[in-house]
Amino acid sequence: MKLSALILAFICVFAFVGCNSNTATDNPSAEPTPNSWGVTLEAENISPEGLTIVCKQSGGEEVSELFTGSFYTLQRSEDSEWVDVEFLPQEYDVTWTSEAWIIPKDESTEWKVDWEWLYGKLPEGEYRIGKEIMNFRKTGDYDEEIIYAYFEIR
Q: What's the CATH code of the domain at 142?
């Protein structure tokens, strides 16, 4: 029962996050800080074709079960604003699968991201990659937040 409710919740989440705006107004030079759930993201093994996201969870307030999925957003700093990186032309619409990847409490986990098929090789610049994190308490009782890892392509 709990698993089916979680799957339904993730389907709703990913249907909602599939619609991105083209710009965000966060300051590109802002340093990432842990959110109230104690989650931070760091970018490692950075290349123009992809990277590894390292997700760390430590402490935090009112943490229940933390999850994420395959969805990510990729943005580039342009004129002190974050702008979505454009997808390469695709034969079909891009959709995200609805896995529920668990973020263990007080641990670290990694995800490899290969974006070359979706964005191509990225040119030099300042970027951030965002993962939507869900703090799931029970069916209909959860919070979501996009957490970013900042990186540079040289």
A: 2.60.40
